[in-house]
Write a structure and sequence with these properties.
The protein has four helices and 15 strands. The chain is elongated, with a radius of gyration of 32 Å. The protein folds into three domains: 85 residues, Beta Barrel (Elongation Factor Tu (Ef-tu), domain 3); 64 residues, Beta Barrel (OB fold (Dihydrolipoamide Acetyltransferase, E2P)), CATH 2.40.50.100; 74 residues, Helix Hairpins, CATH 1.10.287. By secondary structure, the protein is an alpha+beta fold.
Length: 251
């Protein structure tokens, strides 16, 4: 019985020696600032701050009338070039047959081949232009890169966006279902940790099973002096706010 009590005391002392609750601050996971890849006037904004969005969901749309017209123009050019390429191909076959019967000269055959090559080249160029025009038209729709929550909105319908200048931040998203607890630790504390190591995060009166996402390599200045930044990522079904206090439980 005495041995058991002694062992319990030793275990409790060891646990108190190594275990520590370190104060942390909640941060967004995978925060991203979105801008429009092309210039235009904002036609619609489909989200607001706090909205949960799904990957691929259209968040805002620019007026794509000009880009749609370019797509239609290129499609019309392709229709015309298809006919011209078909005619050049038929002409080449006809000249080849005549050349085989020694009715036309080599120069005529070369000219027919050149016309056919030029027609096919112009058709390929038009098809490439169509892909480019279609991509630009698609870029008038800004979509969510992953499941996320909207944390900032700085765009309204009717606003002009100029992509040729410095990119304008229109929306800010953070990955939904995940948060980061940022804690600053001493060199002796961080030596015992490794990326991917499981740690418990306490926030909002609940405990969450997290894991270390990153360990700082250079010390930064904090209130207590110099320390290393450690980010602990954890899943959360509840919608939390960045900047709130949390606790990281170290082993």
């Amino acid at each position: 019985m005495k041995n058991w009590i002694f062992l319990s005391v030793v275990m409790a002392f060891t646990q108190s020696l190594w275990a520590a609750d370190e104060p942390a601050v909640l941060q967004w996971s995978h925060r991203v600032e979105l801008s429009a890849p092309v210039s235009g006037v904002v036609r619609a904004v489909n989200v607001d701050v706090g909205d949960q969005v799904r990957k691929g969901q259209v968040l805002l749309a620019l007026d794509g009338a000009i880009y749609q017209a370019r797509v239609a123009e290129t499609q019309a050019a392709i229709t015309r070039l298809l006919a011209e390429a078909a005619e050049a191909g038929r002409d080449l076959v006809r000249v080849q047959e005549l050349y085989a019967r020694t009715v036309v000269a080599t120069a005529d055959l070369d000219q027919a081949r050149l016309r056919n090559t030029r027609a096919e080249s112009m058709l390929d160029e038009a098809r490439a232009n169509l892909r480019q025009s279609q991509k630009v038209l698609d870029d008038t729709l800004v979509r969510a890169p992953y499941d996320a929550v909207v944390i900032m909105r700085q765009v309204e319908p009717g606003m002009s966006v100029a992509s040729t200048l410095q990119a304008q931040m229109l929306l800010v998203l953070a990955k939904s279902g995940e948060m980061i607890a940022r804690v600053y630790l001493s060199a002796s504390q961080i030596e015992k940790l490794k990326v991917g190591q499981p740690l418990t995060v306490a926030a909002g009166g609940k405990n969450y099973a997290g894991k270390i996402k990153s360990l700082g390599l250079e010390p930064v200045k904090v209130k207590e002096g110099m320390a290393y930044q450690v980010d602990v990522e954890f899943p959360s079904k509840e919608q939390m706010r960045a900047g709130l206090a949390a606790v990281v439980k170290l082993p």
